[in-house]
Amino acid sequence: MIDKRLIPFGGLKKEPFSGSHHGMRYFFRGDDGKNSTTFTVFIYPEPWCFEDTPEEDKESATFPLSDEGMDQAIAWLHERFEAEKPRWINASKETMHIVNSAP
């Protein structure tokens, strides 16, 4: 799904990081700017961006801003994807249908 080496976890203090995997979007964000010692990972279904996705469609978990915390976050992403795989796959398949029917 995602290789933790692609996420500059120290950089989360300055900028969030986002991506997607087969219909499951993810958004990593440091919790306290330059003073962050933790980061939060959000997951939500395609097609919308983080800001346009309803809060009730988001799930999150917080981890220590460290190499071990990044391992935990990646494990959590894999676990959440597998736990709701049909939901994510369906979101991926429905993306263009939803986008085309948006007002």
Task: Characterise the protein shown here.
The chain has 103 residues and is of the alpha+beta class. The chain has one domain. The protein has 2 helices and 4 strands; from the N terminus they run E-E-E-E-H-H. Strands 1-2-3-4 form a 4-stranded antiparallel beta sheet. Strand 2 (24-30) and strand 3 (38-45) form a beta hairpin. The chain is globular. 22% of the residues are buried.
Topology (SSEs and partners):
Elements: E1 17-21, E2 24-30, E3 38-45, E4 59-64, H1 67-83, H2 85-101
Antiparallel strand pairs: 1-2, 2-3, 3-4
Short overview:
The protein has 103 residues and is an alpha+beta fold. The chain has 2 helices and 4 strands, in the order ββββαα.
| Helical residues, percent | 25-40%
- Radius of gyration of CA atoms, rounded to a whole number: 14 Å
Q: How widely separated are the two ends?
A: 32 Å
What are the segments in which pLDDT stays under 50 over at least 5 consecutive residues?
A: none
One letter per element, helices H and strands E, the order comes to EEEEHH
Q: What topology, given as strand order, has the largest sheet?
A: 1-2-3-4
Overall number of domains = 1
Q: How large a portion of the residues is in β-strands, by DSSP E?
A: 25-35%
How many E-type strands?
A: 4
Describe the main β-sheet briefly.
4 strands, antiparallel
Structural class: alpha+beta
If you average the pLDDT, what whole number results? 87
Q: Number of DSSP helices? A: 2
Give the overall silhouette.
globular
